[in-house]
Amino acid sequence: MAKITYIEHDGTEHTVDVKTGLSVMEGAIKHNIPGIDADCGGACACATCHVYVDEAWASKTGEKSAMEESMLDFAENVEPSSRLSCQIKVTDELEGLTVRMPESQH
Amino acid sequence: MADPKAKVVILGAGHAGGSAAAFLRQYGHEGPIVLIGDEPIAPYQRPPLSKAWLKGEADASSLALKDDAWYAENDCDLRLGVTALSINRGSKTVLLSPGGAVTYDYLIIATGARARKLPIPGADLDGVLELRTAADAEQLKGALGPGKRLAIIGGGYIGLEAAASARALGAWALIIERESRILARVACKELSSFFQDYHQARGVNFELSAGVDALEGEDGKVRRVKLSDGRVIQCDAVLVGVGALPNEELARDAGLDCANGVVVDLQARTSDPSVFAIGDVTHRPLPLYDRQFRLESVPNALEQAKQVASAITGHAPPNPEAPWFWSDQYDLKLQIAGIPFDADSIIIRGDRAAARFAIFHLKGDQVQAVEAVNAPPEFMMGKSLILNRKPVSRERLADSSISMKEVAAG
Question: What gap in Å lies between CA B57 and CA B166, rounded to an integer?
Fold first, then answer.
């Protein structure tokens, strides 16, 4: 389990326990948190689970794959801290992680 | 018409039905939700069944849309192993088995589609499988492994994904297709030939333009496929993947308009204002293509789940989307946006030999659809060109030295 805080674009915060082994996206879907659509269910095929990860966490959330980079390149509102949350696996190290959501996933 | 206290009954606890319940709560619906499914397990994702799940890379809990506790915590009355027998629209009642009856203010039909059966002798033998449910996938998994022989009838996406997974698990695999090429109903011939070559290079066998006369067994279990030309193929299991039919009978018997699926509008509403339908079971408008169509895809199920949740709660409706699909086979990620209705030409961009290319289907200078293999920029920009109806330069689109962003900018 890791406690993860999801912050919607309007500032609404949701802090939930996510099982290790799931992805950050799956944690949001299982808790019905608005703002992460995940149309493809985690296949890295749609870029609708886009989040911003603070730089402090970058080393713990891992590297972006070429596929993820390429999908993100065409998402909206992309920043250097952008990630696809389906590609971040939850580990005990991510206890306290905060991710913020973009204005729109499309 | 938003009515936050209305009682909503959802028939079908698949991806569409489960997502509708979740979006209703997410959009603030306060009334009771009853979610009725005939499978014994809570809503789960089906796409991984032919891919990650078959290869043991996903388990039941990772497939589940929500944890089992979510339904009770969110006042969602999940009734599993229950079948709906009939809908009485006059009394707004659904008869159930087992379980008597349930009344509704709004009904959402999300009964999905079922695998088409083969009308041939032996189709009911043990070991003749289909792939729609987790139970189906469990059976298929048991039939795969080193030395096992899997005959797949139907060269569509289900068959190809299962063949790729079978090879990954060390099984022998044969695809038997009635048409002269695989993916005949859903992809252009260039894409068909690419996928056939890719599968052949990884040990999958093909019989094209081949009919199947019968399946033959020993002790009730399938052992042979008898082709129309008389040849007999030995196998340990047969996977039938020859398309799906909408589970529209309940709706039709209740007098709702049906035409290869339950006819709905862009709010997912049927011909009865109190009854909605979503997902694979619907015949829905596609404004981009100026027609009605039945889509079988998760993005469609989610879009319609949002449409119905918006209509019932008064939440802002979802933005229009271009239909899209994906398939994972080996190291290939196929992403398809749009449908090539009315297309008059194709443009191939990229390098087929390097397994990184896209096929654009155009009507004049308008992109109608794109099939992208390991090519996310082409998929993402193609999807946006389809949705925005923006004309493109055919020469620039064909030139992969010009980036997709520049092509789209015109």
Answer: 14
pLDDT in tens, B50-61: 888 888 888 888
> Measured between CB atoms, does A41 come within 8 Å of chain B?
yes
Contacts of residue A44 in chain B, CB cutoff 8 Å? Answer: 333
Instruction: Look at residue B385 and give its three-state secondary structure.
Output: helix
Identify the burial level of B93 via C-beta atoms within 10 angstroms of its C-beta, where 0-12 means exposed, 13-18 middle and 19 or more buried: middle
Q: Which residues in B189-217 are b (16+ Cβ under 10 Å) and which e?
A: eebbebbbebbeeeebebbbebebebbeb
Residue from the list B48, B321, B326 with its beta carbon closest to the beta carbon of A45: B326
Which residues in chain A have their CB less than 8 angstroms from residue B381's CB? 74
Task: Mark out the alpha helices in chain A (DSSP H runs).
Answer: 24-30, 58-61, 66-72
Task: Please tell me which of the candidates B26, B47, B335 has its beta carbon nearest to residue A32.
Answer: B26
Q: Does A24 touch chain B (CB under 8 A)?
A: no
Give A10→chain B minimum CA distance, Å: 15
**How far is residue B407's CA from residue B410's CA, in Å, rounded to a whole number?**
5
Amino acid at B125: L
Instruction: Record the pTM.
Output: 0.95
| Min Cα–Cα distance to chain A from B298, Å | 7
- The neighbour count for residue B17, using CB atoms within 10 Å, is 26
Q: Angle B344-B346-B349 (CA atoms, 0-180°, nearest 5)?
A: 160
Instruction: Summarize pLDDT for B177-217 with one digit per residue, the tens.
Output: 999 999 998 899 999 999 999 999 999 999 999 999 999 99
Judge contact between B4 and B31, C-beta under 8 A: yes
Residue type, B124: D
**What was the ipTM of the complex prediction?**
0.91
Sole residue written with tokens 């079922």: B114
Phi, psi of B375 (to 5 degrees): -140, 70
Task: Yes or no: say if B280 and B113 are a contact pair by the CB < 8 Å rule.
Answer: yes
Tell me which chain A residues have a C-beta less than 8 angstroms from the C-beta of B384. 74
Q: Residue B47 is nearest to which of A41, A71, A73, comparing CB atoms?
A: A41
Q: Which amino acid is at B302?
A: L
